[in-house]
Amino acid sequence: MMTIEIDFDVYKALTARRSDETVSYNDVLRTLLGMGQPTAGLRRLFGLGGAKPTPSGSSKGDVADWNYKGIRFPAGTGLRAKYKGRVHNARIERSGIVLNGKRFATPSDAARAVTGTNINGWRFWQCRLPGESGWRRLDALRQDS
Predict the structure, then answer these.
(1) I need a labelling partner for 50 at 20 to 30 A (CA). Which of 34, 36, 64, 89 fits?
(2) 81, 135 in Cβ contact below 8 A?
(3) All residues at 6 or more sequence positions from 20 whose CB lies less than 8 Å from its CB, including other chains
């Protein structure tokens, strides 16, 4: 295995772009460089870990993506919300939002599980899409579409 030296700020930026531990730094760099993901055979040959390659050429998105109210959330999208001084983290999976091991069908349902009251989940949650470093409110995604 080859190594390259990077400074701490580059390391932090690469780490922020990993949606979870299954996404390797190599995967992040390949995405940033527009190289796509290596094939499964190359992964085994070179011992590369990380996320499985995603099918290319699909205009509808990956089958594991979650589509809700006209917005496509890629699988692995991180969600977070600050409530009463505590940060709550969730994750987008195929059929919705997973929070503390429980699946929710809507952002508001997941927000209600945190707050115990009815709340607008689109304003409550922030998201970070895979490959992005910044967080933004879910309702900003609706405005962008």
Answers:
(1) 89
(2) no
(3) 76, 78, 91
Q: Tell which residue, 18, 33, 52, 27, has the closest CA to residue 129.
A: 18
Q: What are φ and ψ of residue 72, in 5° steps?
A: -95, 120
Across all residues in the chain, what is the average pLDDT? 77
Report helix, strand or coil for 112. Answer: helix
Q: Tokens 């997941």, residue?
A: 110
Q: What is the pLDDT of residue 145?
A: 58
Residue 50 is predicted with a pLDDT of: 41
- What are 29-44's pLDDT values in tens digits? 877 787 765 544 444 4
